[in-house]
Specification:
Layout: H1 5-21, H2 24-36, H3 40-53, H4 58-70, H5 74-87, H6 91-107, H7 111-127, H8 131-147, H9 151-163, H10 173-193, H11 197-214, H12 218-234, H13 238-245, H14 253-265, H15 269-281, H16 287-300
Helix pairs in contact: 2-3, 2-4, 3-4, 4-5, 4-6, 5-6, 6-7, 6-16, 7-8, 8-9, 9-10, 10-11, 10-12, 11-12, 12-13, 13-14, 14-15, 14-16, 15-16
Amino acid sequence: MRYTPLVVCVAAVWVVSASAAQQPEDLVRQGRALMTQGKHDEAEALYRQALRLSPRSFEAARALGILLDLKGQCPEGRKHLQVAIDAAPTPTVRNQATADMALSFVFDGKIPEAQRLFEAVRRQQQIDGDAAAAGASARAIGRVLLETGDVANGRQWYEIGYREWRPLPSQPEAEQILWELRWRHFQGRVAAREGKIDEAKRVLGEFTALMEKRGHVTEDNEIYRWLAGYIAYYAKDYDGAIAQLTQGNLADPFILNMIGMAYEAKSDMTNARSYYRRTLQSNVHNLQAAIARPHARAKLAGVSQ
C-alpha cells in the first residue's frame, strides 16, 4: 500500500501518541486522577500496568501500595511500598515512603510495627537536622497510641514531639500561637481520654482564647470543632459531639468516623452507618484515614454498602 506524505505523518503522530500513553509516569498520572474520583479498581489496573512496564518505578509502586491500603489489602500493599522504599531516588523521598509503610501498618492494626518505622523515620530526620519533621513524627506516634488506647505512651510521645521543636522567637506571632493551639489540642484530647473532663474543658477554654487572639482563622475553627466534639464524645454528650463535629472538617475521615461513633452511642445505627460509609469514601492516605478506616470497615462488615 502506498501512503501519501500526509497519511504517513498522521500515522507517525498516532504511533508516538500511543507510545507516550504507555509510559509508566503517564499511567500513574491517569490512575491518580481516577483515585480522586473514587474509581479504585480502574486506578489499580493502571498502576499495575505501569509496574509491568517499569517494575522498579518508585511512583507506580508507591501509588499501588497506597491504593491497596485504602482497599484493605495492606499486606500486598506493603510489598509495593517496600519496592518504593528501595527505589527511592533521595533520602527525603525514602523517608516519605517509609512513613507510608508505617501508615500501612496502622491501617492494618499492627501498631508496634508502625511505631518502629515512625521511630526509624524520626531518627533519620534528626540526623538530617530536620527538627520540625522529627517532632511531627513523634506526634504521629503519640496520635496512633492515643487513638488505639495506649493513653500514657501516647501522651509521652506527644510531649516529646511538642517540646523538642517549637517556632523560634523570631518567627511570626501567628506561628507561635498556632503551636500553642496545637499543644492545647493535644492536652485536651488526652485529658478527655483519661476521663478528666473538667480539665479537658479548661484546656478548651484556653484554646478558645488563643483562637480569638489569632483572629479566628478558618483552620483554627475546624480544629476547635474537632477538640470540642472530641471532649463532648468522651463526656458521653453525644448530641453535643455531633453538633460540634458536623461543623468541622467533613473531608477528614477521622471526623466522619467519630460522628458515626457518636450516632452509634445513641443507638442511631442508620446515621452511624451513613457516616461510616462516608469515612470509607475518603481517598486520602494519612494518619486520620489509617486510624478511622479500619474501624469504619469493621462496623460495616456484613452490612450492605
